[in-house]
Amino acid sequence: MRLEKEIALSKYTTIGIGGIAKYMAFPENAKQVKECLKIAQWEGIPLFVLGRGANTIFGDFEGIVINTKMLRDLKIKEQDGGLEIIAQAGVPLNTLVELGVRENLEGIYRLVGFPATVGGAIAMNAGAFGYEISQHLKAVKFLSYEGEEILLNREDLNFSYRSSPFPSMGIILEAVFFFPKLNYSVYEEYERIKSKRKESQPIQMPTAGSTFKNPTTDSAGRLLEKVGMKGYRVGQVAFSEKHANFLINLGGAVFEDVVKIINHAKRRVFEEFGIELEEEVRLVESSSAYGWKVIGA
């Protein structure tokens, strides 16, 4: 297994912000993921599971980052009325999206533009345009923190808006999906969604996606715009002029400025509307090894 030390984390996130990680591992199978878990537990250091880094912003991390990019096995099987897909955690989500467009599969094409892995999308229960990835999930195989491989069916897992049991329950290894085939082409709607993303979101800029979850009664972007956050800047990080809920890296942005701008935005929204915004983006920092634990759990 490839294990690197003192790794710059900025190149492993879509927003391009990050400090230094003590270790980064690139496991190729479940046995090697278990080895990473043992390293963290033996050394008494924190552990973080990373996909594409699409909703993650790092500071320094005195622990081990498990990069799932090598877990990319994909199996596709025809079933009555659709396709069963077994995808390892590191399979790019876009692989499923493209398959969905080609085969006219229900729902998954709506996640076009998400720079995520299958494991990362499940962990955050990624969703857009009325669709969530958990809707077509049949089962998840994961590694418990006791080192046991477990397969649980969807009905035994609790998913909600931008929330899943992972990584609290364990490290996702692979997922089983069933996507029904539609009797019409999804291409036109796929193109419409892709165009809408391009028009309304700063997808050409280094960004971590949505910064905050939408409150139950409103849109985070609307609230942020109302309190003057659109275009607001701290150092080299700013809320996009295109969409107030997207942070962008203007070049050389640092973790500390991300924390400042997020806290300021939360304070302004609470002062104006009495609503406490909850981060959708994950802020990950461990400047000292404070013992074995899973970050994000």
Automatic annotation (TrEMBL):
<dbReference type="InterPro" id="IPR036318">
    <property type="entry name" value="FAD-bd_PCMH-like_sf"/>
</dbReference>
<dbReference type="GO" id="GO:0071949">
    <property type="term" value="F:FAD binding"/>
</dbReference>
<dbReference type="InterPro" id="IPR003170">
    <property type="entry name" value="MurB"/>
</dbReference>
<dbReference type="InterPro" id="IPR006094">
    <property type="entry name" value="Oxid_FAD_bind_N"/>
</dbReference>
<dbReference type="GO" id="GO:0051301">
    <property type="term" value="P:cell division"/>
</dbReference>
<keyword id="KW-0131">Cell cycle</keyword>
<feature type="domain" description="FAD-binding PCMH-type">
    <location>
        <begin position="16"/>
        <end position="182"/>
    </location>
</feature>
<dbReference type="InterPro" id="IPR036635">
    <property type="entry name" value="MurB_C_sf"/>
</dbReference>
<keyword id="KW-0573">Peptidoglycan synthesis</keyword>
<dbReference type="InterPro" id="IPR011601">
    <property type="entry name" value="MurB_C"/>
</dbReference>
<dbReference type="GO" id="GO:0008762">
    <property type="term" value="F:UDP-N-acetylmuramate dehydrogenase activity"/>
</dbReference>
<dbReference type="GO" id="GO:0008360">
    <property type="term" value="P:regulation of cell shape"/>
</dbReference>
<dbReference type="Pfam" id="PF01565">
    <property type="entry name" value="FAD_binding_4"/>
</dbReference>
<keyword id="KW-0560">Oxidoreductase</keyword>
<keyword id="KW-0132">Cell division</keyword>
<keyword id="KW-0961">Cell wall biogenesis/degradation</keyword>
<protein>
    <recommendedName>
        <fullName>UDP-N-acetylenolpyruvoylglucosamine reductase</fullName>
        <ecNumber>1.3.1.98</ecNumber>
    </recommendedName>
</protein>
<keyword id="KW-0274">FAD</keyword>
<keyword id="KW-0133">Cell shape</keyword>
<dbReference type="GO" id="GO:0009252">
    <property type="term" value="P:peptidoglycan biosynthetic process"/>
</dbReference>
<feature type="active site">
    <location>
        <position position="280"/>
    </location>
</feature>
<dbReference type="InterPro" id="IPR016166">
    <property type="entry name" value="FAD-bd_PCMH"/>
</dbReference>
<comment type="similarity">
    <text>Belongs to the MurB family.</text>
</comment>
<keyword id="KW-0963">Cytoplasm</keyword>
<feature type="active site" description="Proton donor">
    <location>
        <position position="210"/>
    </location>
</feature>
<feature type="active site">
    <location>
        <position position="162"/>
    </location>
</feature>
<dbReference type="InterPro" id="IPR016169">
    <property type="entry name" value="FAD-bd_PCMH_sub2"/>
</dbReference>
<dbReference type="InterPro" id="IPR016167">
    <property type="entry name" value="FAD-bd_PCMH_sub1"/>
</dbReference>
<comment type="pathway">
    <text>Cell wall biogenesis; peptidoglycan biosynthesis.</text>
</comment>
<dbReference type="Pfam" id="PF02873">
    <property type="entry name" value="MurB_C"/>
</dbReference>
<dbReference type="GO" id="GO:0005829">
    <property type="term" value="C:cytosol"/>
</dbReference>
<keyword id="KW-0521">NADP</keyword>
<dbReference type="GO" id="GO:0071555">
    <property type="term" value="P:cell wall organization"/>
</dbReference>
<keyword id="KW-0285">Flavoprotein</keyword>
<comment type="function">
    <text>Cell wall formation.</text>
</comment>
